[in-house]
Amino acid sequence: MLSKGCRIFDSSMYIKDGMIKTIEYIPEDMEFPPRLRLLHWDAYPSKSLPPKFYPEHLVELNMQESQLEKLWEGTPRLTNLKKMELMESWHLKELPDLSNATKLERLDLAWCQSLVEIPFSFSNLHKLKVLAMFACSKLQVLPSTMNLSSLKVVNMAGCSRLRKFPDFSTNISSLKLSNTLVEQVPASIQHWTRLRFLELSYNGKLKTLKNVLEGVSHLNLSYSGIENVSDCIKALQGLQHLNLSGCRKLATLPELPPQLMFLSANDCESLKSVSCHFHTPNAQLNFTNCFELSQQQQRAIIQQSFLTERKYRLFLNGWALLPGSEVPAEFDHRARGSSLTLPYPASSRFKICLVVAPNHQVRDYRVSQLLRSRIGKCEFHLSSIDEAIRVYRIPRFRTEHLFIFHSDCIEEDQSISERVFEFSSKLHDFEIVECGVQILTDEMERSWAFENDSKI
């Protein structure tokens, strides 16, 4: 750790809390303490560290927003180094030989936009846990083989010239490869048994996905060139979130895992069919602006039962958003406008359908909208289109859409004779054209549950 009494620095610099603060320049004969353990110097102004810099005792090197083009010459013994952060060092062209950095756990090179190559010496970083190379836009060359046994998190999103899939470790749990030129996921990913998060969005070269591990829980293919999704996706029993937004060439959607909790397929302008075995009862289904869906396919989505286990029903409900201009017939209590009154029913469980229309005069793009409902004397927030936009960033719809969801009334009050449903948009960015309610009974839910169990 550096101390405030260190006298080797020019008067234009000072040290505070172990951090070097620089004003203008570095003297040519400047020397660092020979046993320096921590170096944190933001906006370092020179192209390299001084010739008499000795990094052998470094534990942490943090030089964000530096003018560095390279760090040092040779292969020093970096056996103590655990953390290296060089993010936003725009001019960094060359990484040092890290063959001896056998304790390095975190390497952050985000926004190092002049880097072209990851050196082969990376193959020795067996303690590395996090590799962050976001927006290294010139990166093209990766080592042919690496197996970094400790590597858990890799972020190479925005490496827009990268064509090779980074097959670095079988223990990776999170891999972000958005906005690259990667064309396919290799079969070797089947050995990545700990992979849970895979992000391949904005990859225009990616046309199909054949190899995905069963344990993946979050898969993001949004705005990629995906033209078809393999039927094997049904076997991904761990998949909970699937994002296909903006996949404009995707025409069909196969049967999905029943455990799926969230599907976003908004702006899939070529999507014409979804599996007739559409049984994801807990899922939140976003088909915003999917105008090519046939009436039969729309019916398959609308007829989702959105069932949950009763003990969780107040906290976890499915919903669907898709093009449509009329409440379906099974919602036998209907009314124009944003409110509906019906006699107090024996059941307190409902399936609700709203026809919502955008208000094109509102240009407010905040995502804090809220859909409210008052049911009898009980007022509470429902899972709603606005809440979904806030939480799941669902884009705004361009024309009339149907929003369908399941709801319970928290409070039972037998003293009232009718139940009133009221819906509104907090930001007035859409209006409720029509609303409909289907009263659910135990018999109906048992029937739906049996149908879903028989399909799984």
TrEMBL record:
GO biological process: defense response
The entry's keywords: Leucine-rich repeat, Repeat
SUPFAM superfamilies assigned to the protein according to its UniProt record, in alphabetical order: L domain-like
InterPro entries (alphabetical): Disease_R_plants, Leu-rich_rpt, Leu-rich_rpt_3, LRR_dom_sf
Official protein name in the record: TIR domain-containing protein
